[in-house]
């Protein structure tokens, strides 16, 4: 990774849902200390944050959020959605987004994984969404295009989103985790691939990176479950956001990659206790997936903001009458586009 990218083009955004970040920050110090960090404290978290010294960071708390977006809007950043405030106020080209229950993973050789470097490699090499390469990402070391791959498509397209994976606790839903309480992911697969165009995927916000300048407005807090809690099993905000991002990328001719880098996720929450809260989301997915599969955006939608606004209109028209949660999501998407445009480059650091 070049020095210019280290110093000027990357923000690491961390949503703090717990007060003591000492062990988390200390373990990531060899990597995080090279970059600027944006830590957004969950507005519902009452305890003061504990953050070790030695980092270049800005910390945003509820008063800071209120100051930037207003008290009536700041409520959308509660829980896991606090990370989106970091996306909003960042002014860097690339954002690495990491949950505070993620730790450094080791590869098959026992070497610690530099998640930031691997994410940036994915974002700064082309993606190939229009023809699948059976040898995974042809732009990774030791790989290339396979026989029969059209030369006209080998230049690829810009990669806008990099989705990472995790060892130990897999990102199962509550029913699956409750049925397999002892199951853990121990397989480190040394591979990256481009998600094909028109294929959807359940993007998790746990360990991702993206080009904020290109696709930033499509990562947004909009769908909130009625009984949403503070554990990953009890939310769907990132799943919905990921559907919006993929539809926008497909329309704009951008790529999404998944695979490495891995992080290590610690256990958090009780899957059985979360079953009731997440069940609403499990049912909604049966409506959400066919809807996003059918969405086609008009040629006039030439920016990410346009794409989000168009998706919001279709959500309101086709899903709004089926469940109030969709009507609220559509409005939240429109409001987010307006917020993204209005906050602009005028945001100052907290306490400034």
TrEMBL record:
<keyword id="KW-0961">Cell wall biogenesis/degradation</keyword>
<dbReference type="InterPro" id="IPR037595">
    <property type="entry name" value="RGP_fam"/>
</dbReference>
<keyword id="KW-0333">Golgi apparatus</keyword>
<dbReference type="GO" id="GO:0005794">
    <property type="term" value="C:Golgi apparatus"/>
</dbReference>
<dbReference type="Pfam" id="PF03214">
    <property type="entry name" value="RGP"/>
</dbReference>
<protein>
    <recommendedName>
        <fullName>UDP-arabinopyranose mutase 5</fullName>
    </recommendedName>
</protein>
<dbReference type="GO" id="GO:0009506">
    <property type="term" value="C:plasmodesma"/>
</dbReference>
<comment type="similarity">
    <text>Belongs to the RGP family.</text>
</comment>
<dbReference type="GO" id="GO:0071555">
    <property type="term" value="P:cell wall organization"/>
</dbReference>
<dbReference type="GO" id="GO:0005829">
    <property type="term" value="C:cytosol"/>
</dbReference>
<dbReference type="GO" id="GO:0052691">
    <property type="term" value="F:UDP-arabinopyranose mutase activity"/>
</dbReference>
<dbReference type="GO" id="GO:0033356">
    <property type="term" value="P:UDP-L-arabinose metabolic process"/>
</dbReference>
């Amino acid at each position: 990774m070049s020095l210019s990218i280290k110093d000027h083009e990357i923000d690491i955004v961390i949503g703090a849902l717990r007060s003591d970040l000492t062990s988390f920050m200390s373990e990531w110090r060899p990597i995080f200390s090279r970059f600027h960090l944006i830590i957004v404290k969950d507005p519902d978290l009452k305890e003061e944050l504990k953050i070790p010294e030695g980092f270049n960071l800005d910390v945003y708390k509820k008063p800071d959020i209120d100051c930037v977006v207003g008290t009536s809007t700041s409520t959308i950043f509660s829980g896991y959605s606090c990370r989106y405030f970091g996306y909003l106020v960042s002014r860097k080209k690339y954002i690495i987004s990491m949950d505070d229950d993620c730790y450094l993973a080791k590869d098959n050789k026992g070497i610690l994984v530099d998640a930031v470097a691997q994410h940036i490699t994915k974002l700064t090499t082309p993606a190939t969404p229009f023809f699948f390469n059976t040898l995974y990402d042809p732009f990774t070391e030791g790989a290339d295009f396979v026989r029969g791959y059209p030369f006209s498509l080998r230049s690829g397209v810009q990669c806008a989103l990099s989705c990472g994976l995790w060892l130990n606790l897999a990102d199962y839903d509550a029913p699956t985790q409750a049925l397999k309480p002892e199951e853990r992911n121990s397989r480190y697969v040394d591979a990256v691939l481009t998600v094909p165009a028109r294929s959807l995927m359940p993007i998790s916000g746990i360990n991702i990176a993206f080009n904020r300048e290109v696709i930033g407005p499509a990562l947004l807090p909009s769908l909130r479950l009625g009984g949403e809690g503070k554990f990953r099993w009890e939310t769907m905000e990132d799943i919905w956001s990921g559907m919006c991002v993929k539809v926008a990328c497909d329309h704009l001719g951008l790529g999404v990659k998944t695979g490495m880098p891995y992080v290590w996720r610690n256990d958090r929450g009780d899957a059985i206790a979360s079953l009731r809260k997440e069940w609403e989301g499990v049912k909604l997915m049966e409506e959400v997936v066919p809807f996003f599969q059918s969405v086609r955006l008009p040629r006039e939608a030439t920016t990410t903001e346009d794409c989000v606004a168009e998706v919001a209109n279709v959500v309101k028209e086709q899903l709004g009458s089926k469940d109030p949660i969709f009507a609220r999501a559509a409005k939240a998407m429109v409001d987010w586009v307006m917020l993204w445009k209005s906050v602009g480059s005028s945001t100052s650091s907290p306490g400034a």
